[in-house]
Amino acid sequence: MDNKLDALFNPCNIAVIGASNNPLKAGYTVIHNLHQIGYPGGVFPVTRSQETILGRKCHVKLSDIKVDIDLVVLGTAAPLIYEIMEDLEIRMKKYNDVKVIACIAADYGETKTAEGIRRQECLIHTAKKYGIRVVGPNCIGVIDNINRVDTTFVETLIPKEMGGCKGGISFISQSGAMAASILMMGASQPASISMNKFVSIGNMADVDCIDLLEYFEADNDTKVIGMYLEGYPDGRRLIETLARIAKKKPVVILKVGRSSVGAQAANSHTGSLAGSDAVYDAAFRQYGIIRAYTIEELMDTLQAFDAMSLPRGNKCFLLTQAGGPGIYCTDAYMDQGNLQFPRVSDETKEELTNLLPPMANVGSPEGYADITAAAGARQHVESLRTILADDNVDCVIFVTVVPTFLPQKELGEKLVELLKEYPEKPVYICIMAGNYVLESRRILETNGIRTFATPSHCVKAAGNMTAYGNFLANRKEEV
Amino acid sequence: MDNKLDALFNPCNIAVIGASNNPLKAGYTVIHNLHQIGYPGGVFPVTRSQETILGRKCHVKLSDIKVDIDLVVLGTAAPLIYEIMEDLEIRMKKYNDVKVIACIAADYGETKTAEGIRRQECLIHTAKKYGIRVVGPNCIGVIDNINRVDTTFVETLIPKEMGGCKGGISFISQSGAMAASILMMGASQPASISMNKFVSIGNMADVDCIDLLEYFEADNDTKVIGMYLEGYPDGRRLIETLARIAKKKPVVILKVGRSSVGAQAANSHTGSLAGSDAVYDAAFRQYGIIRAYTIEELMDTLQAFDAMSLPRGNKCFLLTQAGGPGIYCTDAYMDQGNLQFPRVSDETKEELTNLLPPMANVGSPEGYADITAAAGARQHVESLRTILADDNVDCVIFVTVVPTFLPQKELGEKLVELLKEYPEKPVYICIMAGNYVLESRRILETNGIRTFATPSHCVKAAGNMTAYGNFLANRKEEV
Description:
The first copy, chain A, contains 16 helices and 20 strands. Chain A is α/β, with parallel strands linked by helices. In chain A, helix 5 (176-187) links the parallel strand 10 and strand 11.
């Protein structure tokens, strides 16, 4: 099947209309980002005002470019849309090559003015005539970290050395600002997160959530789908699509407009009808679609699904290096509601007791151990090993403050070795001391092991993964 | 009144028993930290094994030191406590100078072993005999940023250039690990947070929460009190103390052991009885004591109280630069429950409409405005000024993603200027893009204006400050 959206994520050549030599303009940043991410195809800036941009020869018109162009990034001021579409027609009659337009400019339908709507109609009408798909307008663009495409005008986020990182998260955002924030927050993690595919969908004048959900459904490189959602005109169809996908891969959604006032703000923003929150919520629960309530929960959960296997059950051991953080974590654990403290074997308890400092607390409460600040790196790692080896344990939350006296590098490296031996059991690690523990967190994260900022962040991720694991298991039983 | 605890926060000279030249030992870090923070008094390391540590002459015994020592930091291995106490007696008979001991060593009463309990009894018994107060054992120490004292063995947290920062937060922690984490997380903020006074109370063998609460109650440099609390043997007395203080200054408490399992873990940890959570919760509400549920909420709320005036009422305007983050914030706002969108005057709306890009949303919903990504730095600042000038507004939540094209430095500096003009109205600022917006956040924070990591963090801080403002206002009416 010829899917035109392939050209969005894996274009042979890209034209950037409205290119610029001014680093403060979107028409520059797009070309800069394509260069930074290492896009292997040809980049063709289109502008009257420059000869070259970042070493790329400029063309005055799209129709002047002599090679095949399958993706056009449209960044000019909106009033120019009419002449650009005329020129697109010339090109299509001659080459018939363009498959997708990503319109990153604003001042189209979202303005709700007659002129804005007319511009959007011109864009969509012309594109449809030639079977071209349109992403946007009023979006920040598209990223594909596997094929090395970045048509966004967000500051370059993917350090060159990280560009090849094959994360399995694909993300759809109905808000450009939220998209940009999530990218920048992700890139600010101890080890930057590179999404697999990332699309800001803007006005959804053509390509919409469902097109992309279906694309990600079929995409083998997508392990988990994330979404920032305000609303969708055909809520029933959206839910049906999500429900079908959730049987195969996890979908994590930050659905806003929960409150009536929030829904009103959403309507003013994208014109979305937020829909009845109770209906969405019930459907999400029924169909195993994971709902996140905060940006942090959204990102933590996506990272957890990407980095770890699903737990086999809901038995989650809580291993802490300190009482306070352990108790704090226990409260969050009980709030979460779907995790259960395992009863480990007497052998496991005995092994832990022998291994740990005399003051350690093993099993009070059941399924909980406090190795204490007296525990060295070896005791951190070996106590975790003992717990992972117990059949009663499906996953572990592991909280440590890393005292001054503990070698961070050694701890990080030993944990990496251990976790490779137990790929089937998720371990949610929190090393909680802000920037002071970045060294060990970086060692873990660059080795594909996610870490979390606080114990309650671990709990959210563990709870969501467990809920999805249960959902799949129950489905299997029913079948 | 001679308050011996004065010597804890403002000692004339400090002896460090168990001093060391090994940077991986607590006995080194304490001396290093005292040096780093710029402690102006004399530091006297006590150890047999060294001549000098960090340039300070060592003494073999406490009783050998020839000058007045009012604070003793006790960091030796616990089994040595008996001979140290004998030597303390020699010193007290000769000089009668020591007022406080901060025992940062562990292996005392918290072990619940006969030997541990005996050690603690020896320490407390000897101290009491001479009227010496004891903090700990099993704590991480004490910090006073005004008097430049840091007896902790946590990695140096206060960069020298920040050491003079007179923050008004004083904090009491019933967990050393939580204390260390909170210090390190605070120091990892865009501009490091220096607490005013900070005490990890460990086993509370003598000095306990109430002693310190009362000290902070009377301390003019303490603007807000923070607390990590597991439980207290005399819950009624604790609540009475908190209730009395809350009439004068805000107290923000992360009370754990909320769940029965969490309470069990707390009991295993500090032997604390967590007490009925419902009773604590009701008392907190009744007496205007602010309860935080996460570490983030605790820190955000403390910072907000420290940096801003109390709002006069609950009318909180929501000003956003982008739809998505604004809607997300609105949901959190409605969840919070005690904030109310103000109805601003028609003049304010007209002024905003004239000032902002045509696509801006002013007043849909009421009390909300989206200035859009097209807004420049001037429009950010002037729209905020217009809203602050409206009498219907008590405080503002201000969310911006800072697009690539907006000069961060200019935005930060202009906001600082503006906010100085409206010191009586809190503005909760979120510039949401991880490390990519540290420049503007740092400009704001080094000028005493707190910023928050996400919109929902703003909401928590705004909600808590508003709740406390209401509590005080209602009290006034009753009187």
